[in-house]
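Hello,

Our lab assistant flagged a job as stuck in the queue for most of the afternoon. It eventually completed. Since we weren't sure the result was trustworthy after the delay, we are filing this so someone can double-check. Below is the sequence as submitted and the structure that was eventually returned. Let us know if re-running is recommended.
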Amino acid sequence: MPRDRTSRSTSRRRLPSAALCSSSAAVRGASCCPWRGRGAPYFDLGAKYPLVIAPFRVFQQLPLVDDQLRFLAAVAGHLAAREGRFIFDVFNPTFAKLVEADGQEREDTPEQRLPDGRSFRRTARVARVRWVDQVSETELIYYVSARPGATPERFVQAFEMRWYLRAELEHLLARAGFRIRSVYGDFARGPLTDGSPEQVVCSELGRRGRA
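-- returned structure --
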């Protein structure tokens, strides 16, 4: 049996923010980006920008409304002008798949070799759907083998994924002083439909966006 190691990323004080930092560094042409803060809702880069992006489902890792609003306030504080823009992506929820979630692991990355001679494969599962909270308790499971035929170690990355409908995003952004310019259903700027895989939201500060 594989040895099991589990890490959980559900604490709102330990949310990953590397995507925001690396994106900011790329805009500035810097090799690194100064970071101050206690997690995504409280990030402080010490500078202002015409554009802030939050890719890779950053906003979905904020399950609490208070943290969502803190995060949006931090974004607004980093925009250089009233017309500053904020772009982020979230899944467009597929309710049929949420209903079918059964807690079973399903492989999404077949076994492959690593440069150091080890190999790994990855599975994923939704352990539980909390309908009232609109949260999926998700796990990414990595099986890592030191050598062919060796017993793999099992690493579990457990985290909460908050899912949103468009109307909810629109109201959250309005509460934080933003207005939506456009919402796309994929990264090719396709229209948002019931069957779209993504919600790519392009927003800008409105009149209430800056104090």
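-- support follow-up --
The delay was a queue issue, not a problem with the job. The result is valid. The chain has two domains: 3-7+94-160, 12-91+163-205. Residues 3-7+94-160 form one domain.
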